[in-house]
Amino acid sequence: MSQYQNNIASVEKLVNQQLGTWKAISPAYAARMQIQNRFKTGLDIAKYTAAIMRKDMEDYDRDPTNYTQSLGCWHGFIGQQKMLAIKKHHGTTDKRYLYLSGWMVAALRSEFGPLPDQSMHEKTSVPALIEELYTFLRQADARELGELFKQLDQAQQEGLNTSKIMAQIDNYQTHVVPIIADIDAGFGNEEATYLLAKKMIEAGACCIQIENQVSDAKQCGHQDGKVTVPHEDFLAKINAVRYAFLELGVDDGIIVARTDSLGAGLTQKIPVSQHVNDLAAQYNQFLDTTEVSSVNDLAEGDSVLKQNGKLVKPTRLPNGLYKFKDGSGFDRVVLDCITSLQNGADLLWIETEKPHVGQIGDMVRAIRQTIPNAKLVYNNSPSFNWTLSFRQQVFDLWQTEGKDLSNYQRESLMSAQYDDSELAQVADDKIRTFQADAAREAGIFHHLITLPTYHTAALSTDNLAKGYFGSEGMLAYVKGVQRQEIRQGLACVKHQAMAGSNLGDDHKEYFSGEQALKASGKDNTMNQFDVAV
């Protein structure tokens, strides 16, 4: 017996126990609603998706071609349309996630209006977006399953075999997938981090990404002025997130520890070392210092450390921040990553200044000398000029190989004059294979783009506005949007159905029977799209 039939039998038994008072309740309809609402709470989602992500991590460890991907989504509708597109074009949601970007929450979801990525937005907007994303994904399930139920009804009315449709219903693959959710630097101290992590998990997050910047001085990873915290402070927040997972029963929740040390040259405070070569001492070894031979080497208010048997003065800026040694970023990243994995983190995120497989791979190989199965979540960031970066990488490679570069100017390789050149074609091929190459050679388990849908919204709106308010008029929308939706088979062309109109009609029929006033009758203009394409 199918799960659907089991649900019918279960509801029918319950209805029969009510001595006729539930006579208007259809067990079949109730069973359909149960199947269309598979996930009752955000915690159900977090537990389900954590198991998926853990399995994916194991698959990657066996074979790095099994890397995973996601796109950042700033609204539930965007996340829903992304997953619908994935199922339509690729047939499965396997190895595809959603990413919740703190940058896009700040820029697009704050009540203050657009904000920079500096943890100034309301922290509650982060779990609210997680809940919204999953609400839209669950609605996508309900809509598609509703269509299958209509096909089932039609087949039953015509006396056809329904086994294939039943199998589709029972084996239906949900649009609900893991979300990697950005908690920034925790929005406060470790208690604040714990409280926010709980809200995020309760909303459905199985994976939380946290960074080692100072919470109240947080900057976007691709901006200047980043300030990191000592390891002890960061590990306390990792512990806070783990406790939140355990308290809520998501025992296999995933923590992504992000280090910004490659681009961060400052620290807010000097940790206190308790033992020789402990974490605090290792952190302090990276400080830029000058040796102190007497009190005369000190100004009023200067700090002094004893390091390696000598007295040294850390370089302190007028704002009170301390400076790291130039060129220490690589080693600080490696120590950050090893320490995080040894203290409860599951995955790493190394924020880099360019997408370079060799650079990332060098750091991962250094980490794997201590943690052999270390693996990364990596930001394929729109902050990189991918075209210029890869064209310059090819230029530099060809230069070492002694190839003739007289037709190219390295600093001008972004110019459209090079778009059809051999160098540009080689660079584009490297961009195309970047994710597979980095998964294989640099330990990247998950590739994401933080804010792609921010840019696609801007680009598509620009294209529409250019034509609509110009000489094309309405043709700009019809030719550039609606006709493309029809030709490419986007379900969203029937926007009333996408927004839930048909689902509402189904429910009205369940609740009111033949008295139901439904919106999907012959005069619904959405019927104009039921045409051959």
From TrEMBL:
The keyword NADP does not apply. It catalyses: D-threo-isocitrate = glyoxylate + succinate. Mg(2+) binds at residue 182. Keywords: Lyase, Magnesium, Metal-binding. Gene3D superfamilies: Phosphoenolpyruvate-binding domains. It comes from the Bacteria. Can also use Mn(2+) ion. GO terms for molecular function: isocitrate lyase activity; metal ion binding. NCBIfam families: PRK06498.1. Its cofactor is Mg(2+). The active site is at 220 (proton acceptor). It holds the Pfam family ICL. InterPro entries: ICL/PEPM, Isocitrate_lyase, Pyrv/PenolPyrv_kinase-like_dom, Pyrv_kinase-like_dom_sf. The keyword Magnesium applies. Substrate binds at residues 101-103, 221-222, 258, 379-383, 450. PANTHER family: BIFUNCTIONAL GLYOXYLATE CYCLE PROTEIN (PTHR21631:SF3), ISOCITRATE LYASE/MALATE SYNTHASE (PTHR21631). The lineage of its organism: Bacteria, Pseudomonadati, Pseudomonadota, Gammaproteobacteria, Alteromonadales. This is Isocitrate lyase. One of its GO terms (biological process) is carboxylic acid metabolic process.
